[in-house]
Design a protein that fits this description.
The chain is of the alpha+beta class and 229 residues long. It folds into 2 domains: 75 residues, SH3 type barrels, CATH 2.30.30.830; 120 residues, Acid Proteases (Cathepsin D, subunit A, domain 1), CATH 2.40.70.10. β5 and β6 form a beta hairpin. It is globular.
Length: 229
């Protein structure tokens, strides 16, 4: 009985070690979408997988295992799954232990077809709410009519107030940051936008704050957007 008991203990130890190895490997194979939404001296505000913003100080590690190495007003340097990345404000990256970037995420894309007027329109999502976009490379950021912002539940009045010139004249505008913007397979976090008061803007413009984080490839009437970061 004593010999059997020792063998059982040894077998259990082997099984436990094997199970721990599987669990550890599963953990290290994890991936995360990491966005930088705030920067300060040796501090950064990060968003992980679209969750709530979290402040990290240099040397601090988040519950997901993201370590902030340094930060200034321009960028944050982070380490995750043995990889080191420099992320500017408003940028994002998908990091996994299998390589510098998850290929399926970096290759996320959408192809749009021009309408009869040569415009590219598509359905997408802002903060989880469905919206009709019009691609506009002349717009510096996503531009949302105030009525549409209210429908989407965006409290834009807390944003930075200013004015902008539209085709219908001067309009009151509020600069905000959107949690998520989705077009096709592409989802970006912490995207700059402006909300325009009045009736001058009729449709939400998909501007460069989204487009400049993609590669744009045009082939005839087709426009393909491929996520870069």
């Amino acid at each position: 009985m004593q010999k059997f008991s020792m063998r059982s203990a040894y077998s259990n130890a082997i099984l436990t070690a094997a199970l721990l190895s599987v669990l550890l490997n599963a953990h290290t194979a994890a991936a995360a979408d990491i966005s930088i939404v705030g920067l300060f001296s040796d501090k950064a505000v990060i968003v992980v997988d679209g969750g709530k913003p979290r402040m990290l100080s240099a040397g601090q590690t988040s519950p997901e295992g993201i370590k902030l190495l340094s930060a200034d007003s321009r960028a944050a340097v982070i380490q995750f799954q043995g990889q080191r990345r420099t992320l500017p404000l408003g940028s994002g990256s998908r990091i996994s232990s299998t390589g510098p970037a998850n290929e399926s995420a970096s290759a996320a894309s959408v192809t749009l077809t021009a309408d009869t007027q040569g415009h590219y329109q598509t359905l997408g999502q802002i903060n989880g709410g469905t919206v009709q976009f019009l691609v506009d490379t002349g717009a510096t950021s996503i531009a949302i009519p105030s009525a549409e912002a209210r429908r989407l539940g965006i409290n834009y009045l807390n944003g930075q107030r200013g004015y902008t010139q539209t085709a219908n004249g001067r309009a009151e505008a509020y600069k905000i940051k959107l949690d998520t913007v989705t077009v096709g397979d592409i989802t970006l976090h912490a995207v700059d936008a402006v909300v325009l008061e009045g009736e001058g803007l009729k449709v939400t413009l998909l501007g460069m704050s989204f487009l400049n984080r993609t590669d744009m490839r045009r082939d005839g009437q087709a426009l393909t957007l491929i996520r870069r970061f």
